[in-house]
């Protein structure tokens, strides 16, 4: 039988029957066993530490922090996509880590509201760190009640990468900037046996590109309303954006069977030059082999006539990773302050930019010179228009159903009305 316990109840529960019945089943959880209550041990939970972009720099910076603070032990817990779930489990047992490094997305949207993490605005000001943060990043991490969910850290640019060598091979001399040019380029690429736009139509990469294309005829305010409400039929701009997406899809713009592809497939196809175009965030751009990067340019997604945007669009977000403070972390504020201050230092920030090709939500004049496509994306500026990344507006419970709906949307022949229907059903499921 499905539990009727809300997320608020789950995260807030820490005693009584809920804790008593849950804890025995959690005894083998490594995070619970590792969440040290020693006041001289700072416990950090992060997605950095294995293969995630920026992991080598982070681990090196962590060692430097240890060297500078010999009396403070630091325990680094690492999880991948399951980090949010693991953290929530440890929070239920009141054995959560002190600092959590994760993005603002899906489950984490609810954390501050339900007390799983704390408002850090006061700490930001007390520690004098506000001036280090880009104002747009502060806005993005602040909820509707004025609470700062976490200390902003990683950001990302999300342009479109074009392999100009493959385009030229197919007889396409210029990067397409309109839908008609993109369709023409796709036909020429297919004639040469080259996939046009590769995309993970079965995961979050496809979800983001679909959301970007839907916004072709939407202003930012209109887009916020649509992605908050899930009403894709009641908005004329959303209807037209979905029609534009379906027209591109059925004209063969996307790689074959895009509805079954993943982000890994997408990056492999682009990096091995079996596909000519991909919508790629900074971490993917940093992984493009040098021999491919030399003949790759970044730009925006091509526009339809009468679009709401005046230039091809890209996505940007400043909510990729932040430093969240847990209730346990408030008991070790001296250690937490030292850690956040160290990570906010210009020399530490510059290392992530130079060594790992990361975009940052903090002020810095450093460019990712060893990652030319990342640096090129950082300099796009007014050459492109920015579409809205919907992550902080989509209700958390709708996130995964929207990915399922995305796969249906990328299935050739699916009508615009059907696409609207499955998108709206994802919100009703939530």
UniProtKB/TrEMBL annotation:
Superkingdom of the source species: Bacteria
Signal peptide span: 1-27
Gene3D superfamilies linked: Periplasmic binding protein-like II
Family matches, as InterPro entries: Bact_solute-bd_prot1, SBP, TAT_signal
Keywords assigned by UniProt, alphabetized: Signal
Name of a matching Pfam family: SBP_bac_1
PANTHER family associated with the record: ABC TRANSPORTER SUBSTRATE-BINDING PROTEIN, ARABINOSE-BINDING PROTEIN-RELATED
Protein name as it appears in the record: ABC transporter substrate-binding protein
